[in-house]
Specification:
The complex is a heterodimer of chains A (338) and B (306). Chain A is an alpha/beta fold and 338 residues long. Chain A has two domains: 220 residues, 3-Layer(aba) Sandwich (Rossmann fold); 91 residues, no CATH class. Chain A contains eleven helices and twelve strands. Chain B contains twelve helices and twelve strands. Chain B is globular and about 65 Å long. Chain B starts with a strand and ends in an 11-residue tail after the last strand. The interface between A and B is large, with 71 and 69 residues. The complex binds adenosine-5'-triphosphate (2 copies) and magnesium ion (2 copies).
Chain lengths: 338, 306
């Protein structure tokens, strides 16, 4: 399989009056054709900024500090706005966390989808309308015919989200960056949309970066999972490795906060302390102050990525051969498929 | 939880005429009540009318039909609403589904949170107000340094938490929370859910909690209602409803909850329910004490010639 997206030691910061905000720190991963990589992690850890920066859709005070990004073999780190405009949509598209950033509130949905379609290829009005209708049906919108003429604020939250997905899919991108694309959907519609993405992947080989807080959804759709904390990838592996054999204490914390694992005690478990602000990060491991397994060295030096298998690695000193052996506090019980 | 009813929605109907051919019956004869200190979960299909119920309660639409009562007052009546505006402003707060996106971009986090507190003339002294804001930020897991930020400078989940802090600032009696935590990571979700529970226990906050995450709804709610196509199909005590769902749509919904177990999840079979097969009429019947389910109206018995 060809590699379609590759990040090497990519770091990006914001320049603010109060100092530098290190939103993305030393991120590396590759994404192959037809592969689905989920990114999970703390709110505010840099997931959205990372994706927006790949498309160069960030305010002026954002700057790339180091590293590079390759899209379908081409180094796009230094691409100009004009060059980016040719890549956006066709090569790489994004579904934004908040649908209203994509949708124009005063323009009917149908018109917006048709515009997206006609940006990609020469299409007559009728052909574009037919395709728009098809797309709305594809994402399970009822009464698509009548809805074409409706403005976004007459749609429910989940319908808007599906329209945005329809627009992104309209341009047949090689890579789709989907930022929480199913959060506003009920579980039955969500399951259909996930199945739809899986079947499109099978047909077209589209690669997905799928950001989600819902670990159940991640379990359903992801081939690989990257766990982010304070701008860094702290653990990455196949879905099986991350769910059944997590190694980073932050990953343990995330899995331990699931209601399924905590409900009996009457109180959900959350990771103690607060996520760090990305301004003036401490030396050493940014997670150390919240990590009950932190070692002395965590406060002095940031841990490197330790490799556990060819596909699995994690950045925690607990994986150093000199570190004490620790039994992870949570285990996902593997169920028998029905 | 007390027996006092804090919110009563009865036979609520909300139509939206879209075109000559189509009128969306967004909410179609929905009734439920919430007791003081109770958390009522509302779940259902995307587009089934949950947010419309929330907005109708807040008086944002002229109701097509039905009534909304807050405590002893019929607030769906505009005159009654106006007479009780101060009480409603302080004691009913809403977290809109898109509240994170709807925060005023020209206000700082501090001013956004301060606004409802000031509108209700709580914390008249600046020091008092600032201390309260710091306390609220802490409760939603935000460092106090976020006070000076503008919405565009913080992440989606951080904005959502600002919206939550804003809604609890006046210690309201009822919070209408429309998808308040979907954009938060599981650890902060847990923190917010624990906070809601504490507010319920310690201050007797009641919640209308709208969410798609059925495990969270199960954990948090005392009772749950299930909506589809504008109608309430099933309503009952949380554990009863989760353990013995009666309506086929509820069963389908519960079977589709994704679980954090990749091998299981990929192979899982879901129960299907086609909303188009839902019969037109129907009546909500009490099948067991407190457990209501939509049953098709009995077809008129056709008698033969003899
Ligand atoms: N324009 C900006 N200027 C300064 N800092 C910013 C700006 N935009 C984002 N940030 C900061 O960058 C960090 C990463 O934000 P990002 O939106 O990527 O988080 P996220 O991981 O997507 O979180 P969530 O899950 O809440 O959406 C946040 O701490 C945020 O405060
Ligand atoms: N102002 C409006 N004008 C016309 N139609 C509307 C309006 N508001 C909502 N609708 C329609 O009413 C129906 C119910 O929408 P609502 O937003 O209440 O759904 P929901 O249950 O909150 O869905 P979701 O889970 O996706 O947020 C939808 O078909 C929607 O298109
Ligand atoms: Mg985000
Ligand atoms: Mg809604």
């Amino acid at each position: 399989m060809r590699t379609v997206l590759e990040l090497n030691n990519y770091s990006l910061s914001f320049d603010t009056p109060e100092g530098e905000v290190e939103a993305v720190r030393d991120v590396s991963f590759t994404l192959k054709e037809g592969e689905i990589l989920a990114i999970v992690g703390e709110s505010g850890c840099g997931k959205t900024v990372l994706c927006r920066s790949l498309l160069k859709l960030l305010p002026e005070n954002a700057f790339v500090k180091s590293g590079n990004v390759r899209l379908c073999g081409q180094d796009i780190t230094a691409c100009s706005e004009r060059q980016m405009r040719r890549l956006r949509g066709r090569k790489m598209a994004m579904v934004f966390q908040d649908p209203m950033t994509t949708l124009n509130p005063t323009v009917p949905i149908g018109k917006q989808i048709m515009e997206a379609l006609r940006n990609q290829e020469k299409l007559g009005y009728r052909a574009a309308k037919a395709r728009a209708l098809e797309l709305l049906k594809l994402v399970e919108i009822d009464h698509p015919e009548e809805r074409l003429a409706m403005q976004p604020h007459f749609f429910s939250g989940g319908m808007r989200q599906r329209c945005v997905l329809a627009i992104a899919l309209a341009s047949h991108p090689k890579v789709l960056l989907a930022d929480e694309p199913t959060t506003a959907l009920d579980v039955t519609v969500q399951a259909k949309i996930l199945d739809l993405l899986l079947s499109i992947r099978k047909k077209t080989g589209i690669a997905l970066v799928f950001i989600s807080h819902d670990l159940g959804v991640v379990a359903r759709i992801a081939d690989r999972v990257a766990v982010m904390y304070a701008g860094k990838i702290v653990e990455i592996g196949t879905a099986e490795e991350i769910f059944y054999d997590p190694r980073h204490p932050y990953t343990w914390g995330l899995l331990g906060a699931l209601p399924a694992l905590a409900a009996e005690r009457g109180e959900l478990r959350s990771i103690p302390g607060m996520p760090p602000s990305l301004r003036g990060l401490p030396t050493g491991d940014a997670f150390a102050v919240r990590n009950e397994y932190a070692l002395a060295i965590d406060y002095e030096e940031a841990p490197p990525m330790f490799s556990i298998s060819p596909t699995h690695s994690a950045a925690t000193w607990l994986l150093d051969p000199r570190a004490p052996q620790i039994e992870p506090p949570v285990r996902i019980k593997r169920r028998q498929p029905l | 939880m007390s027996t006092e009813i804090i919110l009563k929605v009865s036979h609520l109907k909300q139509d939206f005429p879209i075109s000559r051919k189509l009128t969306v019956h967004a909410v179609d004869d929905v009734s439920f009540q919430i007791h003081r200190g109770e958390i009522f979960g509302l779940v259902g299909e995307s587009g089934s009318g949950k947010s419309t119920v929330a907005r109708s309660i807040m008086g944002l639409y002229r109701l097509t039909d039905g009534e909304v009562w807050f405590k002893k007052n019929k607030i769906s009546d505009k005159r009654v609403y106006r007479k009780n505006r101060a009480d409603i402003q302080k004691n009913v707060q809403i977290i809109f589904q898109d509240s994170a996106a709807a925060l005023n971009p020209r206000m700082t986090v501090r001013d956004i949170i301060a606004e409802p507190i000031q509108a209700s003339h709580l914390c008249p002294r600046t020091e008092e107000l600032d201390a309260r804001i710091d306390e609220l930020l802490g409760q939603v897991g935000l460092e106090t340094s976020y006070r000076t930020k503008y919405p565009s400078e913080i992440s989606g989940g951080q904005r959502q938490r600002v919206a939550i802090a804003r809604s609890i600032g006046t210690r309201p009696e009822l919070i209408i929370a429309d998808e308040p935590i979907a954009s938060l990571d599981v650890s902060i979700q847990a923190q917010i859910i624990n906070l809601f529970r504490r507010l319920q226990r310690e201050y007797g906050f009641a919640f209308l909690f709208i969410a798609h995450d059925l495990s969270i709804v199960r954990f948090l709610s005392n009772r749950v209602g299930v909506m589809l196509r504008g109608r309430m199909l099933e309503l009952g005590e949380t554990e009863t409803l989760y353990q013995t769902p009666l309506h086929p749509y509820t069963k389908a919904l519960l079977s589709a909850v994704p679980v954090a177990d990749p091998v299981y999840e990929r192979a899982k079979k879901r129960l299907e329910f086609d909303p188009d097969t839902l019969p037109q009429g129907g009546t909500l019947l009490e099948k067991a004490p407190g457990h209501w389910v939509m049953c098709p109206d009995k077809a008129p018995v056709l008698t033969g010639p003899d």
